[in-house]
Design a protein that fits this description.
Elements (H helix, E strand, L loop, with lengths): L1 H9 L3 H5 L5 H26 L4 H31 L6 H15 L6 H15 L3 H15 L6 H4 L16 H29 L6 H17 L1 H22 L3 H10 L1
Helix pairs in contact: 4-5, 7-9, 7-11, 9-10, 9-11
Length: 259
């Protein structure tokens, strides 16, 4: 779940790349050829740098940080800035704005170790809710919409479009998300309550609660496969069932257009 919590967040930038791919073949080549090839190359470089002097080692680390952040943290904001400016800005100008704001804001953040501590909490707790979200996405794309995505409809605010929902919210997805979260949240809360009760009321401090939560999150990481499977399956079944019982008008429109 910790891995899901980290990489699912990075996965939100995938559409920014995918919309630049003109054919399904380009996606297949990227996943089956490009990704393994570059991953293998990175492994080879990493193994060779293990014996490298510090100058070469940290130079490569600097390049890796720049490339990683450019790929994962810049593309999405750049796309957002360009769209907000009515696409009057070039990609280079938008990237300059994003990196400048990030550089200035960096001095306003908390000390790094404090940030790391709170980030670990956020990823650990947030990861409990990522798996059911994945179940909803898979159910909607693979089952309900039969792997058809209307890019133009996604970018419009039409109340009768293929992705329109009551008040702009897909309540079936929200209900399925909570259904998928329920087993993990109930188990986590029950174990936390028992752990705190065993320590006694007099020993309840912020530090003791933090230690208990951290210990329980660690156990969830060890058993993440089982928790994720249960959450994904529950959310998947709940979303498909709710969609079959209460078919939204937008889905009817999408199916009619796909036919």
């Amino acid at each position: 779940l910790m891995v899901c919590g980290t990489w699912m967040t990075l996965g939100t930038v995938v559409p920014d790349y995918a919309q630049r791919m003109t054919t399904p073949k380009s996606v297949t080549l990227g996943v089956l050829v490009g990704l393994p090839a570059f991953a293998a190359a990175a492994a080879l470089v990493g193994s060779s740098l293990a014996q490298a002097p510090n100058l070469a080692l940290y130079s490569a680390l600097l390049v890796a940080c720049v490339v990683t952040n450019a790929a994962t943290n810049v593309v999405g904001p750049v796309t957002w800035v360009k769209q907000g400016a009515g696409r009057r800005l070039s990609s280079g100008a938008a990237a300059t704005i994003v990196t400048s704001v990030a550089a200035i804001a960096a001095y306003a953040v908390l000390p790094w170790q404090t940030v790391v501590a709170y980030a670990s909490w956020a990823v650990g707790a947030g990861a409990l809710f990522v798996a059911p979200a994945a179940g909803v996405v898979v159910a909607d794309y693979w089952v309900c919409r039969d792997r058809v995505v209307d890019r133009d409809a996604l970018q419009t605010a039409s109340a009768t479009g293929a992705y329109a929902y009551a008040g702009g919210v897909n309540y079936r997805a929200v209900a399925a998300l909570f259904a998928g979260m329920a087993p993990d949240v109930w188990s986590f809360a029950s174990n936390l309550s028992l752990d705190l009760a065993a320590k006694g009321a007099g020993a309840l401090t912020l530090e003791s609660v933090t230690d208990s939560v951290g210990s329980l999150l660690g156990s969830y990481v060890v058993n993440s496969e089982y928790s994720a499977v249960i959450a994904v399956a529950t959310a998947f079944v709940a979303y498909v069932s709710l969609t079959v019982l209460f078919v939204p008008e937008s889905l009817k429109v999408a199916r009619a257009e796909a036919a």
